[in-house]
Amino acid sequence: MIRRSLLGLLLVAACGDDAPPPVDVSAGRLTARIASSPAQITLLLDGSEVWSTRAGGQPGADKHTPPHGFAAIGSRATSVEMNFGSFKFTELKTSEVWRAIDELGEVTATSDGATFTLYASGERVGTGKLVFHPETKSGPEPEAAGFPRHVQVELVTDAERIQVATPCGADEHLVGLGGQSFDVDHRGETVPLFVQEDGIGKYPDPDDIYAGLWFLTGRKHSTHTPMPMLLSSRGYALAVKTDARAVFALGSERPDASRFEAWEGTLDLNVFIGDGSDARDALGHMVAWAGKPARPPLSIFAPWVDAIFGSANVRRIAQKLRDNGISASAIWTEDWRGGDDDALTGYALHEDWRVDRGDYPDFEALADELHDMGFAFLTYHNTFIDETADIHDEALANGYAIKKADGTPYTFTGVKFSPSTLLDLTNPDAVTWGKSVMGEAITLGSDGWMADFAEWQPTDAVLASGEDALDVHNRYPVDWVKMTSEILVKQPGRFDPIYFVRSAWLGSQPYTQVIWAGDQQTDFSDGDGLPSVIPMGINLGLAGFPYFGSDIAGYMSQGTQPTTEELFYRWVTFGAMQPVMRTHHGRSARENWQWENDTASTMHFRRWTRMHMQLAAYLWGSSGSYDRDGLPLLRLTALEYPDEAWAWTAIDQYLLGDRILVAPVQVAGATSREVTLPAGTWYSLWGGGTALPGGVQSVTAAITEIPAFVPAGALVVLYPDGVDTPLAAPGLASAVTVPEIAGDREVWLFRGTAANPAHAQWNDEHGPAGAAEWTWSGRDGALPTTATFNGAPVTVTQAGGAAVINVSGNGTLELGGGGTLAIQRATPGDVRVVIR
Hints:
By secondary structure, the protein is of the alpha+beta class. It is built from 12 helices and 50 strands. The strands form 10 sheets. It has an 8-stranded antiparallel β-sheet. Strands 22-23-26-30-31-32-33-34 form an 8-stranded parallel β-sheet. A 6-stranded antiparallel β-sheet has the order 9-6-14-20-19-16, with no helix packed on it. It is globular. The model is unreliable at 1-16 (pLDDT under 50).
C-alpha cells in the first residue's frame, strides 16, 4: 500500500471560469491530475506527461459512432452466431446511443489514489476510482524506486459497454494484443478481441465483413489468443482487465485518438509506467501484474518429436532418433486416443478421452521404455464431449456439459462433424470429474499433453455458474489451462510434466507453460503460413507468454498443398531458433514431407535438433530474464533497440533472447533476403563471415540454413554438441544427457567491444547479471594464436575461421593479443571456448 504521506492534494489553475480546478494526487514522483470539466485524467512523471485520456466528451458523428473524448457508455445490442468455433457479430440498429461522459465530480483523495463521480450531460451515470498500486515487478520497493509503476482507473456504470479514449501520438507505435499474425504494430487498426478459431487460411479482411463460408476462413484479427494488452513506444503499457469482448481502436477512427472498449458496464483500465519512458520497464510491470508461471523444466527447451500410428511405430521412431544422434527430450503421441484417415480432412483423431487399446495395447510398457531412453511421453486432450466419445454418456448423465435454456445439453456440429458439446468449466463437479478422467493418462505413464481448443463455448449457452456465457466466453481457455496445470503436478520418480496450449486470454499467463501458434497452413502464405509465426510469437511475448513454438512444418493442408521438401527444410531451421522446437505430422500425415523421407532430410533434422539442444543452455538463461524482468524469449527487437523505428514494426525478424537476431527466409524459392541490423557491428552467429555494419544487409541462405546474427563483443553460452536429452536415460547407456555433462559448456565469443555490457555477460540461469565476463581488447581484430588459463599456457587451435580453446574449471582465460574471459560458475566443468 502506498503510504498516506506520499499522497497529497494540490489545487492548480482552473480550466475555465465556470469549471472547478483540476485535482492532483501524487505518489512520489508520479502525479495523477484529474480534471472535472472537460473530463480528463493525466499521469505525470517528474512533472512531465507520460499518459492521459483525451479531454471532454465530444459526441460521435451519429448515434452509432462512439465519441472520442474522455469516456462513453453505450449499448451492445448485437446478435452473435457461432459456427465451427468462429463467431459472427452483427450490431443491431436500435435507438440506443453512445453517451459521452463529459464531467468528473466529487473528486476525493483516498489513501492510495482518488475517487470521483461520472456525469453525462449533467446526469450521474456511475462512479470511478484511480488507484496507485505498489510496484509489481521484482526489484526495489516503491519508495526506493520513487513511484508506483501501476495505475488503475476503474469506471463503474450500469451500461452494457464502456470505453475510454486516449491521444494517439503521430509517431507512436502500439504493439502486442496477443496472437495477431499480420502485424506487430497495430497503429491504425481496429482490433476486436474475442477468443475464437483462427480459421483455415487467414486473410487481411475486415473483421466485420462475414462473406461466404465466414466460419471456415479467418479474418485479419481472428485468433485463439487475443489479449487486451499493449505496449507503447512512448514508454507505457496498457491493459483492460475483462472477460468480456473488448475492442481496441488504435488511431483507426481518427488518427489522433485511440479507444479502449469493454462489453460490460465496468472498465478496469490498467496503465504501467516505465521509468524514463522505458518501454521495457513498463512491459515488465504489466507482465508481472498479469502473472507469471513457474519456470518450466529444462526439457521444454530440447526438441519434441511427434510419433503416431500405434505402439510399434512409436517405438521405431524413438529408436531411430537415438540411433541417428537426433536430440530430443519428448515423444508426443497425439493419437494415443485413436485416429483414422479421412478422405476429406486427412488423419483425424478420435474424440475419446481414454487410451485406444487397439492402437496402443501396451501403453504402460511403451511409456516405461520411452522414459528409459530419456524421452518424456506426451499425449493429447481437449474438452469436447462428442457424440462418438467414450465418455459421452457418462458426462451427460451427470450434467457435466453446458446446457440450453431448457436444461438439455447444448450441442453443435463438432470437429468430427457430429453432434458435440463442451465440458462446463464453471461446474466444480464437472471439473473434478474431468480431472479424474484426464488424470488417468498420468497413471498410465503420460508426462503431459497438448491441451487443445477452448475457443468454442457458445455465447448463448447456460452455465452452471449462472453467468452470462457471452460475458465469460473469453475465460474458457483460462479455466482450461488452470485445470490442466492442476492435473499435471510433479509425480515422485517421474519427469517434470509438460503441457502446451493454443488458446488463451488475460489470466492464462500464470498457468500457461508452453503456447504454440496454432494450426498454420502447410505453405508460405502470409497470415496463416510460415510467415505468420514471427508476429504471433512477438505479440504473445509482449503479453507475458515467453515459452513459444510452432508446428514443424505446419498443420492444415485444406486449401493448400501438403508440406513440401523446401517448406520442411525452412521450418526445421526456423523451429530450431524458437524457444520450443516441436514437430507435427499435420492433417496430411502421410503426404507431408517429414524428417524420415530420405537420408538428407534425416541429417538436416539431426543437425538442427542438435543445434537447438545446444541452445537450450542459452534459452534457460534467457528464461531468467523473463523471471526477473518479464522479457520474452522470442523478443521484439525494439525492446533492446528502442531508438530503431523499424524495430517496432518488423514482422520477419526477431531477437532470440537479448543477443541473437534471427531472420528466417520465408518466401518460397528464395535463397536470399534483406535483414535490418541495429546500429553497431554484427557477425553471423554461425561464424565464417566478415563484420557487418548496422542497416539493411542482403544475405544468402540455402534451404539448409537460417540467417542469424550477434553484436560484436557478444558471448553465447551453449551445451556441448552431441547431447541427446536433458533428461536421465537409465535404460540407454549410449545416451548423452545433461545430468551427465553437468557443468560442461561451449562458449562462443565474438570479437569487438560490446555496446551493451549485458551481451558480454554469461547468460546463466538468472539471465545476464553482474560484470562482463568477456572483454575484447585486440587492436588488430585478428584471432588469437596464444592464450593462458589461470596463468598457464593453453593450446589454441584454428578451425573454420575460429580459434578454439579447451579449458577445465573456473578461472580467467587471457588471449594473446587482447581479450579476457572470466569463468566463475557454481558447477564448474569443461568449457570449449570458440572465438569468432
